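Hi F.,

I've been meaning to write this up properly since the lab meeting, where we talked about keeping a consistent format for the predictions we share between groups. The idea is simple: the sequence comes first, exactly as it goes in, then the structure tokens exactly as they come out, then a line or two of notes. No screenshots and no reformatting. I'm using this chain as the first example so we have something concrete to point to.
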Amino acid sequence: MNKKVLKRIGVILACLGLVSACFSSRIEIKDNELVPTTVPLGYVPYPQDGYGDGPNQLGQPDDVEILKDGRMVISDVYNNRIQVFDKDGKLVKSITHLEMGIESPEIVPAGVSKDGDGFVYVTLEGAGKIARFNPDMDFVQFIGKPGQLTADNYYDEENSGILMMPQGLIVSSQGDVFVIDMEQDVFRTKERRSFRIRKFIPVKEKDEVIYQEDLDFARSQEITTVMNKSEGMALSEEAGLLFIAEEKASSIQFGTGIKNPDKYRYIGVFDMQTGKFTGRLIGVTIVGGRMTNGYHTDSIEGLAVFEDYIFAVDEKQGKIYIYDIMSGSLLGDFGQAAYWYCDDHSDCVIDGINYNEQTIEAGIAKPHLLNDWRNNELASPDGVSVETLNDGTRRLAVVDQWNSRILYYDLDALLAYFNLKIE
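Output, unedited:
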């Protein structure tokens, strides 16, 4: 009997025993009706069958990337597979370790991104590599190589290109690859969790493209001295900026000495060529070297840039925030935290069922049947993607993680609701 089966049996027994003992204040707000700001066009998979490993199921999806033809590439973490759906939510391809020639099935796909030629990139946390696919989602090559390093020797030149647990990912139109390496047991120092980041650049050799680490970026970047724990990234190539989301803030914002006693989360803004800090933190108010206010008190996950706007996913609030990339002004938000869901550190028993993550994994709780996708009821949203499709329409997609689906929107209608314009 494997570990996953044992885990699920344990969860079932625990949940059955604790039902009468658990309590949630959510019961007091059960009948509240919130008016949605905009109705999604639909969801993926369609039809869906909740949490699981079937063709119409997802298991803790982490990220999504919309392609020009409307297909969506999803990192299906628990199932160790990369799922590709068409624009209407039908599964068209499933990629596992076998298609990439990896011996172990535990690839743990995480971040997903693409370049201007339509090649798709996926971080494989369990394999210590980045997988590159052609526009048809056929495997092409790996970027980086697995290995074990320390916090002190990570950026030594002889260790160039080594990855331990690659997670966050963003790729420029020219194919420059930015990847966050999150081996927190190695990089943790007291309160600070920290991480490392590498930038790979494509180099053409005859008919092949190989990827080399940008060592100048590694030497000049200030990202790992400013941010504490991050995964979500986005680029504004026109402005030359790299945006990075703070997931777990510290009481001192290390690279600047700014005090953050309430541990507000924010979006750090960096030069995309050098990785140097621009001095800007989006989503917080700073007065006299101290963060006095902020919109985010818990994890900011996915980021996506579209023209003058950056979309930031607030996991705990179940919302997507829209900021102006230059001024940092908040322009609007949509979404709401799902009622039938609580995270893995809490219990919420509603009508005799505990809607925490363990019972969802065990198949006891089925929040996707109860949380209304049309009302943007999001259960721990994560990755986000925006794209202009070949037919000229624009879409936004967001991972609705514990409802086991991806919601997608008409981006023009969404921005029009907030009186925002795009060229």
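Notes:
The longest strand covers residues 196-205.
The helical segments are 3-18, 97-100, 184-187, 215-220, 223-226, 357-361, 411-417.

If this format works for you, I'll send the rest the same way.

G.
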